[in-house]
């Protein structure tokens, strides 16, 4: 049975850019920032492409944002996604708005699987996947990982880590939990969110970047989807963490123990 | 007024004192769609190349890119950059191609040279002069990297004097029999497609050269061992030998006997790529040296706090910005279909390669002891940078080319003037017309009372009015100097290399300044002066630097030690050593 997989490609600040809070404390300084696709989403796109390479089907990539996020959609298309859905929304949006839009898209597209990054590296909320599964009433597996290492042969041969049962009705997901791995079997359709060690995403070949330019990119709006994306979360203040104080050298172990005990009160 | 195929050369006009500002303003920028594509390309290249810094160091030491990595480059599509989409390539514009090479050069120059030698020169002849049939035959394979291309002009006895090559091709029925030895061929060891230049009119017929496509499968083609080089060590450089190779007539590129033009056209259009590589190298070193300067603590503070370190970094930034501006303008000329850009291309190559050298040298100086250690990338980048002043036309030859070519039109007007004076009594009216036209141009140079056309910028942003005045003054100085030098030396200017070099240096400074002013002006117009304060500072610094340098060159046109210097050189040449040892 050919698969249909929905993946996401959020545009986030590149963690190698210098991130600073703006003087008003309302957000970050945007000038001179570089952007990229949320790395967890990239892992999701990769996993979806591997599954489709094995089982057949199509990968649909969605992103919510201003026209700037075309860059991330095109990147996913260059990696191999079939088509893109752009929810045109320039203003602020919170996890409820994002999950709402994705729910409507899932209802329209009816994918077998929605693979999302477990969180985006800008605000690290880690909520959208869970909301989405709940609202759709689908099964969910968060923090998908795999037993094999990223240096394993399975990884090198680009074998998907998510395993479908022979009848195509269930997916087996290995997930990272404290102290080990847990294996879940989820009935499809399901929402899976990706952890860091699920796979090593491919990078696009240059000719594929050119081909991606002509792949279909559909424009939607929250209104057209019938979703009110007014944020229910407001940022009241944002500031840089306090600068770390310079360390001190202690003369010997006894002094260290004394300081840990009496000054830091750590032991 | 847009650039067309008949647009004049900016520098030829500047030699008359004419500022063809429409060639430079507004400063070109990539379209939105192309920028989006380029961001994709850049991020993909980062994924491919950034994790390989350690490998690059190792491959530099070994002096070879491993075959598996060449395969990775092919898989990535890096040999398809400039090939039209119809032939399976990416069809990048000159601007986008140059930007791509810049990005590669940020990681490793050997890789940039491997990709660049293929696209900029190796198969450029096929792109520029190939018939549809020839393109159909080879471009698809060149795009996938199934064939890698190399450019074979240089020979043991023919470097800068390319017309003195000894390789020959003799017609034999439907074929040519090609024999000769080529030296220092980039990609020689990995190429399957060679653009080869050989004499086709016998040894005595100096100018009769023809370009051929020779594929490696033809019997009689052999490749020498890897050369052990100072820099770009991991790129393949070899000799290539042709021993009575039977080359079908269908492999001739362009016209028989017109190969010298083919070679020059290829080298010309390759220079934007080289400039892009230079910018990439500079950006890499600026990123490294700024971090190093902040981390390295001496005398209780980061060395970044010291004036002499800041002085280096400030100049590095100005050099990089200026080079990038010239490279972008040049590539825009190519993309817009301008034909007469050989001087500007040569200027960009000379300035870019020297700015890169200064930048890497000063960057290494900031890192000092660390800079000298192989563990850090400075010394490799320095070794890699050096070749840029040598290959694709040495900067010395290019300086003469710049001066003589740019002055050519002024020279021919002077000649016309001479001819018309001769015939003045035969046809007084015609003679008078030529004389008065030139007289007006000439008079306008020495006095400000005579109005000239296009003697000023009219479209530069007023925020640059001070810089504009300086540029216009220096332009008049250039035109005066060209006139004076040509009158003084006439045809003999060809032998007056000291004088030509001075004019070339003035021209180089002025073209780069013009491109930079155009860029800053357009930035101010688009974003407002408050957003581009640093760019305005760059314009100010560069203008001051150019003004001082040009004034110095100008003063030395008459007041110089040229004859003494020559005399000392002759003395050393005669003795073949330094003669004043004190022991």
Account of the protein in words:
The complex is a heterodimer of chains A (267) and B (583). By secondary structure, chain A is α/β, with parallel strands linked by helices. Chain A has a single domain (3-262), classed as HUPs (Rossmann fold, 3-Layer(aba) Sandwich), CATH 3.40.50. Chain A is built from eight helices and twelve strands. In chain A, the strands form two sheets. In chain A, strands 1, 4, 5, 6, 7, 8, 9, 10, 11 and 12 form a ten-stranded mixed sheet that branches. In chain A, strands 2-3 form a two-stranded antiparallel sheet. The relative contact order of chain A is 0.19. Chain B is 58% helix and 10% strand. Chain B is α+β, with helices and mostly antiparallel strands. Mean pLDDT of chain B is 91; it is low at 421-435. The radius of gyration of chain B is 25 Å and the shape is globular. In chain B, the strands form three sheets. In chain B, strands 1-4-5-8 form a four-stranded mixed sheet. Chain B has a four-stranded antiparallel sheet with strand order 2-3-7-6, covered by helices on one side. The longest helix of chain B has 37 residues, at 259-295. Chain B has four domains: 12-18 and 261-397, Butyryl-CoA Dehydrogenase, subunit A, domain 3, CATH 1.20.140.10; 26-144, Butyryl-Coa Dehydrogenase, subunit A, domain 1 (Orthogonal Bundle), CATH 1.10.540; 149-259, Butyryl-CoA Dehydrogenase, subunit A, domain 2, CATH 2.40.110; 424-569, Butyryl-CoA Dehydrogenase, subunit A, domain 3. Chain B has helices at residues 10-14, 32-49, 53-62, 67-76, 94-107, 109-122, 124-129, 132-144, 259-295, 307-335, 342-372, 378-386, 395-422, 428-446, 465-489, 497-527, 533-558, 562-575; strands at residues 149-152, 168-172, 175-186, 193-199, 209-215, 221-223, 237-248, 252-253, 297-298, 301-302. Chain B starts with 9 loop residues before the first helix and ends in an 8-residue tail after the last helix. Chain B is built from 18 helices and ten strands. The A-B interface holds A 36, 70-71, 74-75, 78, 203-210, 212-213 and B 33, 36-37, 39-41, 43-44, 47-48, 75-78, 80-81, 85, 88-91.
